[in-house]
From TrEMBL:
Protein name: IS1182 family transposase
Domain Transposase InsH N-terminal, residue spans: 3-93
InterPro entries for this protein: IS1182_transpos, Tnp_DDE_dom, Transposase_InsH_N
Species lineage: Bacteria, Bacillati, Actinomycetota, Actinomycetes, Kitasatosporales
Any one Pfam family match given in the protein's UniProt record, by short name: DDE_Tnp_1_6
The Transposase DDE domain, residue ranges: 371-489
PANTHER family (UniProt xref): TRANSPOSASE INSH FOR INSERTION SEQUENCE ELEMENT IS5A-RELATED
Protein species of origin: Streptomyces aureoversilis
Tree of life domain: Bacteria
Length: 507
């Protein structure tokens, strides 16, 4: 009754080999007895849950009523399954263990045992925005929530709040009772809430704080500063506070999920949440590495995460990626590691639309000179400044009479040429990208990563099923494990005589 070649049929036959009991021994160190539900059974349920994008309650309902799920998990026809809270309990034990991604690692070991990636030397890198599971909070809601959290988590904060905080009754779960359409009332409320926050932070008793209390204080400090600025002195409100007329870089969007951030994939499309970064073998579509990071911040940029995705690769690889990965630091490190780079270089900005770029100038950094497209030569000054840039000025006399000026610059004087230390490396990458063989490889092997991302976010998984980066990291690894397992089964995965093999099926 279960279709052959399905994930259900595979788990029904091979679940004990894929998720053996010894794999979870360290998660249950108590000598009082064994868990009532075997962890291998729960691992199968988690794989099926993330594969079909179900909640805990829906998952248990399927385990209880669906014959396919019962067979996959080794349950009897009349087995009543278990309480949905057991899934949360199991995931929490996984997260706190020494190997929180052991389900993903187990499938990755199967991938290695089959040899499906042998001689597959390409890795395509990309990222996808995943929206957080919480609502974006405005400044007022963030301030109130952060103050409440400090009162709840920090010893002695309740006494301080009772003496200093007057803007709102923080024991009241509702919003402040003001006329929200009245701009002056909103301004006064913001000022009062910021004053409460600063008073609370300034009068907390000196003490050693635990992790929860320290996080609460840190979040309140951040919220009280990221969206707030002193009110303009000219309006007679000296010493007051207002919502800033700008958006703070790396702004926290919710106190419930402090790691979530604003992100723009395009100028017109803004989202709040995280980015999933993944490395894919483009021929098979298998995910070799994956990670969930905040959507903003230099340490979470695509180029910064790329090295982590390739950390466990042995031997040189052809690394394919779009221009988001075209940073000097990443290029230098990947080249030093012996990889071949098929990373699309970032486009050069043109001073004049359709005009010349830096690549149209001849640069002799050793001789310290720059020659423009018209043949004028000027000196390249010694490096200076924080970024060790070198500048060259073409005189107004040279540029004014030059017939190519309309394609070069709109400046009334001469053009200013800026040379950066990484110019030669990026220029070489741009020249390499014009090679027809390079372009053919890029066009053939870079797009398949989009197919894997489509699998990742299908069935509503563009929205995270859980809150926060820790739970999200576990979820995305489980999702990747389930997708890899399904892909292997489609490629003919089987187990014979203790060995994982791929036996392609005849169409």
């Amino acid at each position: 009754m279960i279709p052959a070649g399905s994930v259900f049929a595979f788990l029904a036959e091979h679940r004990d080999v894929l998720f053996p009991e010894a794999m979870f021994v360290d998660m249950y160190p108590s000598s009082d007895g064994r868990p009532s539900v075997p962890p291998g059974e729960l691992a199968c349920v988690v794989v099926l849950q993330v594969l079909h994008s179900l909640s805990d309650v829906e998952t248990v309902q399927h385990v209880r009523c669906d014959l396919r799920w019962k067979a996959a998990c080794g349950l009897g026809l009349n087995d009543p399954a278990f309480d949905p809270s057991l899934l949360a309990y199991f995931r929490r034990r996984l997260s706190r263990s020494r190997r929180p991604d052991r389900i993903f690692d187990a499938v990755r070991e199967v991938v290695a045992a089959t040899g499906v990636l042998k001689n597959k030397h390409r890795r395509a890198l990309d990222s996808a925005v995943l929206e957080d599971a919480v609502a974006t909070q405005d400044t007022v809601i963030q301030l109130i929530a952060a103050i409440r959290r400090v009162i709840r988590e920090v010893p002695g904060a309740g006494t301080v709040a009772a003496a200093c905080c007057r803007a709102h009754d923080y024991a009241d779960p509702g919003k402040p009772r003001i006329a929200w359409s009245d701009e002056q009332a909103r301004t006064l409320l913001v000022d009062a809430l910021v004053t409460d926050a600063l008073q609370l932070l300034g009068h907390l008793p000196e003490q050693n704080l635990g992790p929860a209390a320290a996080d609460a204080v840190g979040i309140l400090t951040l919220v009280a500063g990221q969206d707030i600025e002193p009110a303009d002195d000219s309006d007679g409100t000296d010493g007051r506070w207002r919502i800033a007329r700008r958006t703070a870089y790396d702004r926290m969007v919710s106190t419930v999920a402090p790691e979530a951030r604003h992100v723009h994939k395009t100028r017109s499309h803004q989202q709040d949440g995280f980015k999933a970064h993944l490395a894919v073998e483009p021929e098979t579509g298998l995910i070799t590495a994956i990670s969930l990071r905040p959507a903003a911040g230099p340490e979470h940029h695509e180029a910064a995460v790329a090295l982590d995705l390739l950390e466990e690769e042995h031997g040189p690889r052809d690394v394919l990626a779009d221009s988001a990965y075209s940073t000097t630091v990443l290029r230098e490190k990947l080249t030093a590691a012996g990889h071949r780079l098929l990373i699309k270089p970032a486009a050069l900005k043109k001073a004049v639309t359709g005009g010349f770029t830096l690549d149209d100038f001849h640069i002799d950094s050793a001789a310290g000179s720059v020659t423009c497209p018209a043949g004028h030569t000027t000196d390249l000054l010694p490096p200076g400044g924080k970024h060790q840039q070198r500048k060259a000025w073409f005189t107004a006399k040279q540029c004014t009479i030059c017939p190519l000026k309309p394609r070069c610059t709109t400046a009334k004087g001469g053009r200013v040429f800026t040379w950066r230390p990484h110019h030669n490396l990026q220029a070489d990458a741009r020249r390499q990208a014009t090679d027809p063989a390079w372009q053919a490889d890029y066009r053939r092997w870079r797009p398949p990563v989009e197919r894997t991302i489509a699998w990742l976010v299908a069935h509503g998984n563009r929205h995270l099923a859980c809150r926060g980066s820790i739970k999200g990291e576990r979820w995305i690894h489980h999702r990747a494990a389930a997708l890899n397992l399904r892909r292997l089964i489609n490629l003919g995965l089987d187990h014979h005589n203790g060995t994982w093999t791929l036996t392609p099926t005849t169409p």
